[in-house]
Design brief:
6-stranded mixed sheet; 21 helices; 14 strands; 41% helix; TIM Barrel; 563 residues; 8-stranded parallel sheet; alpha/beta; Rossmann fold; single chain
């Protein structure tokens, strides 16, 4: 026994020593918890409730707007701000001022689905999600998410309300459309995670939206309450698919939409954002989501018409949301929730649950070590070469060849064939025509009268039709006049149709006689030049349709041509 005691003592000593050495992850959790608890324990009730609110802020409005935000921060201890229209220097200057007067650092958010340019002038923009949905290389999406994250971080923005993970199975959707990555749930999920992974890799929080799924709606929740009438089984299989995947992988936030979903909420007409059954029982309990839960903007008609300011905010909080976004009346809402707390309608545990989650997210975003934004060099930092290069790479990889009968594409440079060019649509085709003329003998026949055009067409071996849409977000079908022109010309002449708009623009066009169809999605300079390069074999094409044009041209269709 004398010989074994020292050995046993040594083993016990080693075990005790090991127990005192926590992993790196445990140290991080302890630091976060210590910071959160130290802040929370010194907060008044009003300060705690104030943390639940992110109000709208604009850097392009007058001093009275700035004064109103300042008053809300001073008097009601707001948790954060969501910035809308303005400019980088103005927003950075305002952010620095607002942060300087806030007792607890403010959470700053923005809708940057296609970059800061969605809200701010003088900043770089990226392609819409639907365009990115055509790209087969997810690394490009991740790089874009990462760069948008870097731009957000440079602007003092901690959360980007992106990505949109709605599956756009309704081509007539008036509010999602090209904001979606497409209609295929797997493709949407893969693209959404690549974007999220890139964004969060640089310390900016992502927020998947719009739960439980706004993709198959025929109305706009900014104006009314859309209805999603699908069964629970369909919603679980399609609409919830990307959320479940992103939750498992660690998306920091989720935004709850204002939708009427009768098969998920038993109370008739109750918006999903105010539904305990949807926010708490489905999102938190069944799906096990533990990240930050944001309402969609509470000034939107889809929820605002349901009740009075203050009452709506209280209902949203009681439903299970953590952050109440874009309230109509912050003072009234804060006082309403405080009163509910004092009347024991809201427990301390419920309030602490959300406030501590918000503080923990602020810690994750680096607000425990807050530093003001450096405005010197800000514009140039937000418009570096890498921004333009990523846009260029994305567009070139998105362009999709959906038909190429007779292999009209690619053509050879300086081909002896006579080629006519016809411009359709409401936007300029100059860049496309200039790029084409650099590679072959192209004649513009766009401005001829209908009679003269009919006579002129027979002189050409091939006709290139460019359909150019001014607003790439529009998903409606092309005009009846343009549709008729395409169909008539293609019946008698070899035709290459290049569409600088959403693939949805062709949903009512008969493409049977058109030999070659290229979808370039957006009418940008890069899209015009790259499409010309594809037509003349200087650039390969490998995009696939993110959403169907018709049964003949389904989602994921794409003809690959190597360079």
């Amino acid at each position: 026994m004398k010989k074994t005691l020292p050995i046993l003592s040594l083993v016990i000593l080693m075990m005790a020593s090991c127990a005192k050495v926590p992993s790196k992850r445990l140290i991080e959790i302890d630091e976060q918890a210590h910071w959160v608890d130290s802040i929370y324990s010194n907060m008044s009730l009003k300060e705690k409730v104030g943390q639940l609110f992110m109000v709208s802020a604009y850097s392009n409005r007058n001093d009275s707007h700035t004064d109103s935000i300042q008053k809300l921060i001073n008097d009601y201890h707001l948790g954060g701000l969501i910035f809308f229209q303005g400019g980088p220097i103005r927003q950075a200057t305002q952010t620095n001022h607002y942060q300087s007067i806030s007792k607890i650092p403010l959470f700053i958010g923005i809708d940057g689905e296609w970059g800061l340019n969605m809200r701010l002038d003088s900043t770089s923009r990226y392609p819409y999600n639907m365009t990115l949905g055509a790209i087969t290389d997810h690394k490009i999406i991740k790089k874009i998410g990462e760069q948008i994250g870097k731009d957000c971080k440079r602007m003092g923005i901690h959360i980007n309300f992106a990505p949109v993970v709605d599956i756009n199975t309704n081509s007539k959707n008036p509010v999602i459309g090209v904001r979606s990555f497409g209609e295929d749930k797997v493709n949407v999920t893969e693209k959404a995670w690549a974007f999220t992974d890139g964004l969060q890799s640089v310390g900016v929080l992502a927020c998947a939206k719009h739960f439980p799924g706004h993709g198959d709606t025929a109305s706009d929740s900014h104006k009314t309450l859309p209805t999603v009438s699908f069964s629970k089984e369909r919603i679980d299989a399609i609409e919830l698919f990307p959320y479940k995947e992103l939750f498992n992988k660690g998306v920091a936030g989720v935004m709850v939409a204002h939708l009427n979903v009768p098969n998920l909420e038993s109370q008739e007409g109750l918006p999903s954002s105010l539904s305990y059954q949807i926010v708490t029982e489905l999102l938190k309990d069944q799906l096990g989501y533990e990240g930050l839960i944001f309402t969609d903007a509470l000034n939107m008609k889809g929820v605002a018409d349901y009740g009075q300011p203050g009452d709506i905010d209280l209902a949203a909080f009681k439903a299970g949301n953590d952050v109440l976004l874009f309230t109509e009346d912050a003072p009234k809402a804060i006082l309403k929730i405080m009163a509910a707390y004092e009347q024991n309608d809201i427990s301390e545990a419920r309030l602490a649950h959300s406030v501590k989650k918000i503080l923990a997210a602020k810690f994750d975003a680096g607000l425990n070590r807050y530093e003001p934004i450096e405005t010197e060099g800000l514009i140039s930092d937000l418009n570096q070469d890498v921004n333009a290069q990523l846009y260029d790479e994305a567009i070139k990889n998105a362009i999709t060849l959906v038909k190429n009968e007779g292999q009209l594409v690619p053509m050879k440079n300086n081909t002896p064939e006579k080629i006519g060019f016809l411009k359709l649509g409401d936007d300029s085709a100059e860049l496309f025509l200039e790029s084409l003329k650099l590679k072959g003998d192209i004649t513009d026949i766009s401005n001829l009268s209908a009679k003269k055009l009919s006579e002129e067409l027979s002189k050409y071996d091939k006709i290139i039709i460019g359909y150019h849409r001014k607003n790439s977000r529009i998903t409606s079908a092309i005009s009846k006049k343009d549709k008729k022109t395409i169909e008539n010309i293609s019946k008698k002449h070899k035709t290459i149709l290049s569409v600088f708009a959403s693939q949805y623009s062709l949903k009512e066009t008969d493409l049977e006689a058109v030999e070659t169809v290229l979808i370039s999605y957006e009418n940008s300079e890069i899209a015009n030049k790259a499409t010309a390069e594809i037509i003349f074999g200087e650039l390969g094409v490998n995009g696939t349709l993110p959403a169907s044009i018709s049964k003949e041209y389904p989602v994921r269709l794409g003809i690959n041509i190597a360079q």
